[in-house]
Amino acid sequence: MNQNKECLGCRLANKELPVHVVYEDEHVTCLLDIEPFNEGHVLILPKAHVEEHHELGASAHAVLEASMLLSQVITETFRPDGVTMCQNGGVFSDLGHYHLHLVPRYEGQTFADFYSDAEIERELPALDVTAQKLKRKIEKALATK
């Protein structure tokens, strides 16, 4: 697996930095965003160094499978009105490494709110509490497959 030791995304995906992992397999690590838009905001990162969507290669299937599993679990756990999935490439990628956001959203929250720099006032549980909620649901979902 090709990794870039200078890449923040590689270091996060390979747990070389503190992260709140909710799911992983041999190709991807799924972790909580450290500045969540809403509770349950997850990032899916390939463990191999990939910068752009069209470069996913062998990781593409794992990213898609993880996004389907996590979208289901986020919906069951937090009951959002929808889950937004987005990926920013090129100069818009703040990690320099491919990552897919899964963001639970509720009525009244616009897509523009997600990209706004304005501070949003809301109380969210600690990340370790959210991680445990998701891990329990993921284990149940995988057990029934």
Describe this structure in words.
- This protein has 145 residues and is of the alpha+beta class.
- The chain has one domain (8-105, 116-143): HIT-like (HIT family, subunit A, 2-Layer Sandwich).
- Helix content is 33%, strand content 17%.
- The protein has helices spanning 8-13, 59-78, 111-115, 127-143, and strands at residues 21-24, 28-32, 42-46, 82-86, 100-105.
- The chain has a five-stranded antiparallel beta sheet with strand order 1-2-3-5-4.
- Strand 1 (21-24) and strand 2 (28-32) form a beta hairpin.
- Helix 2 (59-78) crosses helix 4.
- The longest helix has 20 residues, at 59-78.
- The radius of gyration is 15 Å and the shape is globular.
- The two termini are 28 Å apart.
Secondary structure blueprint with pairings:
Elements lengths: L7 H6 L7 E4 L3 E5 L9 E5 L12 H20 L3 E5 L13 E6 L5 H5 L11 H17 L2
Antiparallel strand pairs: 1-2, 2-3, 3-5, 4-5
Helix pairs in contact: 2-4
Are there runs of 5+ residues with pLDDT below 50, and where? none
Share of residues in helices: 25-40%
| CATH class category label | Alpha Beta
Estimate the strand proportion.
Answer: 15-25%
Which fold name corresponds to the CATH topology?
HIT family, subunit A
Largest sheet, spatial ordering of strands: 1-2-3-5-4
Task: Give Rg in angstroms.
Answer: 15 Å
